Hints:
- This is Pantothenate synthetase.
- It is built from ten helices and nine strands.
- It has helices at 7-18, 34-46, 74-83, 94-97, 116-119, 123-138, 150-162, 196-202, 204-217, 222-235; strands at residues 2-4, 23-28, 49-54, 88-90, 142-146, 173-176, 240-248, 263-271, 274-282.
- The protein is globular, with a radius of gyration of 19 Å.
- The relative contact order is 0.13.
- Pantoate (PAF) binds at residues 27-29, 57, 60, 127, 130-131, 149, 152.
Amino acid sequence: MQTVDSLDPLRRAIESLRRDGPVALVPTMGALHEGHLTLVREARSRAARVVVSIFVNPLQFGAGEDLDAYPRQLERDCALLEAEGVDLVWAPRGDVMYPAGFATNISVSGVSEGFCGASRPRHFDGVATVVCKLFNQVRPDTALFGEKDWQQLAVIRRMARDLDLTRPFADAIIGVPTVREADGLAMSSRNAYLGREEREQAAVLPRAMKTAIAAIESGGDVAASLAALEQALLAGGFAALDYAALADAESLAPLTTRGDRPMRLLVAARIGKARLIDNMAVRPR
Ligand code: PAF
């Protein structure tokens, strides 16, 4: 496994990998966990060669967010990736990704505006900008992202369609189902911010979501089901709910009744120092 941090060696390495067949990219910010490794395994099953990028992207962190505290552990991450048979780690230096004078912003309207976009202004501009750069740098045949960040996936797919990206084609952007801990909590690098008691309490999130989904799927009122979800979170130790909503799975348009197209229940809530997000499918009528 090779690790590179600047563009010339990256281009040479990609050129050589491409001779062996299709290349898959798994973009990450490091602090890898089983969720990322699942993406890597899926990438290996879909392509001859696998590239993983590791870059803590300052553009997607707002003022007062956890950019400085975000866990950085490149050596450990590389060891995990080597054991998974990854071919290349692209870990660009900050000045390589954003050279002096960098002045471009990619902003995807619509899907990026509600939910996390409302409480984290410019977050998805930062994600779209860095992912577009990663796609241009690596030019992968396919790219894999966790479904845990459902809105992020929708934003990236929209960007790839709108910008006519050919590597990867929008259809080759693959969402991989969320990997969960034994108690149902979605895996996330930010779970590391939870103390022991908070970590135990956090499991109320997936449980309350399942209860709300069961209520909605059996014909219950959507607003009442979401209100009950909020109550369950607050009673279970969460400090605040950022949002809980039923939305169209693709456009992310909020829904007040159960629809006849694929839908997601999307939630963001705060516990201790962490802001946890999760989403689950809701069966159409
Ligand atoms: O999901 C993440 O880890 C990041 O948002 C991504 C896609 C690597 C862009 O920085």
